[in-house]
Amino acid sequence: MSIKELHERQNAGDEVVAHGSTNEPFAEISTSQLDTLLKRNKKWLLDNGFEGADFIVYPGNNFDKGALKVISKYHYMGGMNQSGNVNTTGVYGFDPLVLPRTIGHDIDICKRAVNLAADHRQCTILNFHHFNSKNTMDISDYEELLAHIDQTNGIEAIGFTDLWEMRRTQP
Questions:
Q1: DSSP 3-state assignment of 125?
Q2: To which H or E segment does residue 80 belong?
C-alpha cells in the first residue's frame, strides 16, 4: 500500500502498526541489529503520521527474551500468530508484548474466533495482509466477515490503542 492508502485506512479507523521489515525472525538477529531496525521503523511511522507506532507484530512469529527486551524500548504491545487457527486472549490479563493473533486466511476460523470472543468476553486479534496473499482471505470473504462482526452481539471492533487503554486502566 502507498502512504496515501495507509492514511486512508487510518482515517477510516484502522491502525497502521509496525511490522518487522526483515526476512529474519527477531530471535535470529542480534539485539543491536534489531534495535536499529525497530528504531528506524518506529521513526518512519511517526514521521509519516501513523498513530499505531506504539504497537508491533512480529514477523515469523519468532522472538526470544533478548528480542522482547529490545521491543519494549519502542513498543507497548506486540502480537504474534500461534497458528492459523482460533486465538483469543483476556482483555485485562495479557502479556502486552506477546498477544496472540489469528491469521485471517479462512472465514470460518475468523467467524469462530469472533464467536468465541463474544461468548467468553474475550478479545481476538485478526491478522490480514493484502487480499492477493495466500494467507489472507479474499475481499468478498472479508466483507462477509465484517457483516458477521456487525451482527454479533457482545462484539465491539477496537484497535490496539483501545486494547492498550483497556489494559492500562483495568478496574
A1: coil
A2: strand 77-83
